[in-house]
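Q: My labmate handed me this sequence with no annotations at all. I'd like to see what the chain might look like in three dimensions before we decide whether it's worth expressing. Could you predict it?
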Amino acid sequence: MDKKKASYAKFLIHLVCLLLAILSIFPFWMMIVNATRSTTEIQQHALSLFPSTYVVQNFKILTGKSFNPLVGLKNSAIISVFATALTVYFSSLTAYAIVAYEWKLKKAFFSMIIGVMMIPAQVTMIGFYQMVYKIGMTNKLSMLILPAIAAPATVFYMRQYLYPTLSMEIVQAARIDGAGEFRIFNTIVLPIMKPAIATQAIFCFVNSWNNLFTPLVLLTDRKKYTMPIMVSLLRGDIYKTEYGSVYMGLTLTVLPLIIVYLLLSKYIIAGVALGGVKS
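A: Here is what I predict for the chain of 279 residues:
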């Protein structure tokens, strides 16, 4: 009887997981399907699970609306890749400094980081724009990359991950062997933090890729537009909106995010499995 209950419970767990997976994938599938359908098909039949044959036509309509996917993908990729790298590396370095060293204002510094997390980015945008304008750095992709060095939420997450994970005995042994602090961090600490780095890399990349507000404020040159800006500017003509081309633009925007997740998800799974073995 116990075996039957266990198998029944296992079946229910798998069924719930399957339903949740379907619910998670369904919106993305609908977006991809609608990118292959015409506007008439979308208006007449809002729900369809099977692709249509209007991919090329929708892409031509999309590129005819001053939408240049190559420019948008290039700019978004440059911003997202470098911003993610800076965020993850310097946040990990800051978290290591908080965990590994004892200094006078450490608690106050960490409290300040938590306090900064409570301030919405929109509140500081006016002052940030004035500063960027005065130094003549508007329409520069670097101004969307360099601020990523300061990421309080990522620092907080890295510190929480590193605090119970890092063994100070290993750090002390490396110091005795003559290794410098940066070498210890790059060769010992960073490999330990791989699961946390992969997790935060996904979040940082997605946030940077989907960021619309800051690029919309700083960028006015069409050659510097990112994918979210280009998608937000998609409009219908006087008579109708081409929904198929809009879905095509959304699909082109989302595909890189899916690829990044698929590339990094294995590190997250490995980290979870390692934590389960330790416990």
